[in-house]
Specification:
334 residues, mainly beta, Porin, 14-stranded antiparallel barrel, 17 strands
């Protein structure tokens, strides 16, 4: 930490604010998978892979776009846009943009005296690449350029910068005979079978947010904060896959990597399921169990309407039934 003579309220505010500057890397920005509790590392494909597992980029059929608006905690708004493109024999590429406007916060000292009001604005730009080693195994990498601004009303503006790298692995279509796969003729929307149809078991793993310390500056004060690095592993099982009814379940385990600046890392267990009827309506149910300094238990619900090539997504993140976060998304796949 480097500093010169600065107002004491900067010292009081920054330790709280800096966590928002690195903790935002864990915010799920994709509506389609929020409804499944975020259990997506083994099953994700196309543009959504830019967040959950870059190895899933390799399963982009041709071209895909996802646009999402997330109502996060405390009236915060998050927007996420991702694009993926299949380059045939050259693998698959993806780009993404994350933008968050967090709620204003009044800061007080230990005696309850008002210090100032701040509001964080956070963005990151991602570039990813994924390719298939063979028909079952794919790997991927993505990098993020992180920027933030913290507006302290009546005082000044703080800014932060950094970058990080994610590495991913995905194994799909294992033991395909475990999936019931029966298509029925003459059903509505039968021609709209999923382009990304998989069978059997899938597995995924990723290491996220590898990189140097995030540097945050206000006036003459500089704070360096280690990025919130995580390890994620997961599995998925396609129980039924047909043009009448499809059923898939998934599980992810995510663990924050302990470092000197983060003495109480959390671990997340994510459970999800999705049932699809006539290739046109999907219902998702998810659950997150978070353990660490404090324990949390969240439930999620979501639905997707439309064929896989053109879907509207809606999900609810229910936080202890006290406040509900409603999220919207739109995905186009060619």
């Amino acid at each position: 930490m480097k500093y010169r003579m600065i107002p004491i309220y900067f010292v009081l505010i920054l330790p709280i604010s800096i966590y928002a500057m690195t903790g935002f890397l864990e915010i799920q920005p994709i509506t389609q998978y929020i409804g499944r509790g975020g259990a997506a590392s083994a099953i994700v494909n196309g543009p959504a892979a830019m967040f959950y597992n870059p190895a899933g980029l390799a399963n982009t059929h041709n071209f895909g776009v996802t646009i999402n608006q997330i109502n996060w905690l405390f009236d915060s708004n998050i927007y996420y846009l991702a694009v993926a493109k299949n380059l045939s024999n050259y693998g698959n590429v993806g780009i993404a943009l994350f933008k968050a406007t967090l709620e204003e916060h009044d800061r007080t000292d230990e005696y309850g005296n008002y210090l100032c009001t701040d509001q964080p604005y956070i963005t990151y730009f991602s570039l990813g690449y994924g390719f298939s080693i063979n028909r079952n195994i794919s790997v991927g990498i993505s990098s993020k350029v992180l920027t933030s601004k913290m507006y302290f009303y009546g005082i000044g503006v703080g800014s932060g910068n950094g970058y990080s790298v994610d590495l991913g692995l995905q194994v799909r279509n294992i033991l395909t005979t475990l999936t019931v796969d029966i298509d029925f003729p003459n059903l509505p929307f039968s021609s709209m079978s999923p382009k990304t149809r998989t069978k059997g078991l899938s597995f995924g793993a990723s290491i996220n947010n590898l990189g140097p310390e995030f540097i945050y500056t206000i006036d003459a004060y500089t704070e360096e904060e280690k990025l919130l690095k995580t390890i994620r592993v997961g599995a998925g099982y396609n129980i039924i896959q047909s043009n009448l009814l499809s059923l898939q379940v998934s599980y992810d385990y995510l663990k924050e990597i302990k470092n000197a600046d983060y003495s109480n890392p959390y671990n997340y267990q994510m459970f999800g399921g999705e049932i699809t009827i006539l290739n046109i309506l999907s219902l998702q149910k998810g659950k997150q169990v978070i353990k660490g300094l404090r324990n949390y238990d969240y439930s999620m619900f979501g639905m997707s309407i439309g064929p896989e090539c053109l879907q509207f997504h809606y999900s609810i993140f229910d936080r202890h039934f006290k406040d509900t976060m409603k999220n919207f998304g739109f995905t186009v796949l060619f």
